[in-house]
Design a protein that fits this description.
about 325 residues, alpha/beta, seven-stranded mixed sheet, 10 strands, binds pyridoxal-5'-phosphate
Length: about 325
């Protein structure tokens, strides 16, 4: 199969292995060769490939219905149930979920809603961050290499040093929102200090700025906790979810206070539109995955697995390992 001729994207050095089956953390190619999958679809398959409860939920949903209509004309139970379970594990103010198809779309929704709710235009993000590849998300990612070819991008965006107390001075009453990964993922898995996250949260509160936490890669049990960091979450913090929450189906979400989310319902009506966001099959899969994550001992095993990687992954190119302290 000629991947490079048939598909729109490739990159130099792409392996183009034809994978015919994936099971737990093993991939099988067309010649029957097995590979240990250490990338998991870029932080997606956090409980391995084809978890039986996820597969069963997908089958059941396929038997019922697939795409119907997303804006409330018809109630789709998988979406409602997933939102209920998700928010039941979050602080009370994070009580409304807007499902998207991808992480970048959730980030776009967060930026739009922040402008709308605060009536401000400034957005602050961090150097070396990654938030997605659509134009808005691209504007805030913290690496000129990715941004440069697509200018002009969104105006009024500031990139600050991550985990720097001095940076916080730039957050002002002009800032609509600050968007931060709870653990910088693409930057090389860099957790901030708990003190810095706390100071960031306080500075946002004192300036009336919304704090948007991008948990798209760090969340979902990956650090041993449901969220990327066990930080104090309270009023005016939003979450963007994605990757593992999709349970290997396309799904993302913005979670926010319902009172703020309501800004999307009026002038214009449907302030953030998606045809397929919160697809019933993806939500059924995500819900089953979240339940499995909570019921089975995946998060308890994270520390031991981390230690195993630390002891076995030895290579001159690996300069340091950082650990989430909280
Ligand atoms: C931290 C973070 N935010 C946002 C995104 C964008 O998600 P998606 O690729 O689903 O648009 C990613 C994807 O890698 C990510 O790692």
């Amino acid at each position: 199969m000629n991947f490079f001729a048939a598909c729109g994207t490739d990159f130099p050095g792409a392996l183009a292995l034809e994978i015919v089956k994936a099971d737990c953390c093993t991939l099988f190619d067309a010649g029957g060769k097995e590979y240990i999958d250490l990338i998991g679809g870029i932080s997606v398959a956090n409980m391995g490939h084809r978890h039986p409860k996820v597969i069963a939920a997908i089958h059941a949903q396929l038997e019922a219905y697939m795409h119907i209509m997303v804006y409330g004309e018809f109630v789709e139970a998988p979406k409602v149930q997933y939102a209920q379970v998700l928010t039941s594990h979050l602080p009370a103010s994070l009580n409304s979920v807007y499902f998207t198809n991808s992480g970048a779309e959730a980030v776009e929704a967060a930026m739009k809603l922040a402008k709308r709710v605060t009536n401000r235009t400034g957005i602050i993000a961090f150097k070396n961050s990654y938030h997605g590849s659509t134009q808005g998300a691209l504007s805030i990612i913290g690496d000129e290499y990715w941004r440069n070819a697509y200018r002009p991008l969104l105006p009024d965006i500031l990139h600050l040093d991550y985990n720097s107390f001095e940076s916080l001075e730039y957050i002002t009453t002009h800032t609509a929102c600050v968007i931060a990964e709870t653990v910088q993922a693409e930057a090389g898995i860099k957790p901030p200090s708990p003190e810095w996250i706390k100071a960031l949260r306080e500075k946002c509160s004192s300036t009336g700025t919304l704090l948007v936490l991008d948990e798209i890669q760090a969340g979902c049990g990956r650090t041993g906790k449901l969220g990327g960091l066990n930080i104090l979450i309270s009023y005016r913090i939003w979450y963007c979810w994605g990757k593992p929450w999709r349970a290997v189906c396309p799904l993302g979400a913005l979670v926010a206070d319902k009172q703020l989310m309501d800004a999307f319902t009026d002038k214009p009506v449907l302030g953030h539109i998606t045809t397929f966001g919160g697809h019933p099959v993806s939500c059924a899969a995500g819900l089953a995955a979240m339940k499995a994550l909570l019921e089975e001992e995946w998060m308890e095993q994270v520390k031991a697995k981390e230690a195993l990687f630390h002891s076995l992954l030895v290579h001159p190119s690996i300069k340091s390992f950082e650990t989430c302290k909280k």
